[in-house]
Amino acid sequence: MKPSMLLYIHGFNSSPQSLKANVMRDYCQFHRPDIRVEIPSLPSFPEQAAAHLLAIVEQHRHDYQIALVGSSLGGYLSMWLNQKFGFKAVLINPAIKPYELLADFLGPQKNPYTQEEYCLQACHIEELKALDTEVIANPSDFWLLQQTGDEVLDYRQAVSKFAGAKQTVIEGGDHSFVGFEYYPAAIVEFLAL
Questions:
Q1: Binning pLDDT at 50, 70 and 90, where does residue 184 land?
Q2: pTM of the prediction?
Q3: Neighbour order of strands in the sheet with 4-9
Q4: pLDDT grade, residue 104 (50/70/90)?
Q5: Could you tell me how far CA 93 lies from the centroid of its own chain?
Q6: Is 127 helix (H, G, I), strand (E, B) or coil?
Q7: Which residues partner with 65 through β-bridges?
Q8: Fewest beta carbons within 10 Å, which of 19, 30, 75, 166?
Q9: Are 110 and 89 in contact (CB under 8 A)?
Q10: Pairing of strands 166-170, 142-147
Q11: Averaged pLDDT, 100-104
């Protein structure tokens, strides 16, 4: 049997230094050191981020059983990778229509983690649209972790999109997903790593 790899995909203007990424890494290091954890620092532009993820997958998919954890925009990219490769995925407050949301963020940006400054343009919104997964082919591949108090995204979009999937919908919370530290063991179990 292939060894396991957990690919954590961070969100928009985030980084491998995000709290949830570190919670997953620390849990695996302490409890499941057999799992290889990859938390790539993704380029800010969607097409480049997708290409970066594809390169990681192509490098490792023949040697590892890969599963995904995606937060926010990382959840959107996880849906896209699932469509291509069938990887199981846990999505945390995922962006369902980021091309609508980020249309309001065109112009200069600064990543608060990396301090990278860049300009989000209309062409990048089109890149996001090109990565859209219109239909979830296998809802059983997914576990949705969603908080209704998400101040960034409309949580109902994700609940609707993943109607046939495992869902944990928690009243309140926020976009960061309050209490995430209680979930790593269940996440690893769901992903069958």
A1: very high
A2: 0.97
A3: 36-38, 4-9, 65-71, 89-92, 142-147, 166-170
A4: confident
A5: 9
A6: helix
A7: 4
A8: 30
A9: no
A10: parallel
A11: 90
3-class DSSP assignment, residue 169: strand
Instruction: Tell me the H-state helices in the chain.
Output: 19-31, 46-60, 73-85, 98-101, 122-130, 155-161, 184-190
The helix (run of H) or strand (run of E) holding residue 92 is strand 89-92
Question: 154 — phi, psi (to 5°)?
Answer: -80, 105
The values of phi and psi at residue 99, to 5°, are -65, -25
Total Cβ atoms within 10 A of residue 172: 10
Which pair of structure tokens corresponds to residue 88?
Answer: 């199981």
Contact 11, 41 (CB under 8 A): no
Interacting residues of 22 by C-beta distance below 8 A, sequence separation 6+ = none
Number of Cβ within 10 Å of residue 32's Cβ equals 15
The two structure tokens encoding residue 138: 């296998």
Write out pLDDT tens, residues 142-158: 999 999 999 999 999 99
Q: Which residues contact 188 (CB under 8 A, 6 or more apart)?
A: 6, 27, 28, 31, 32, 35
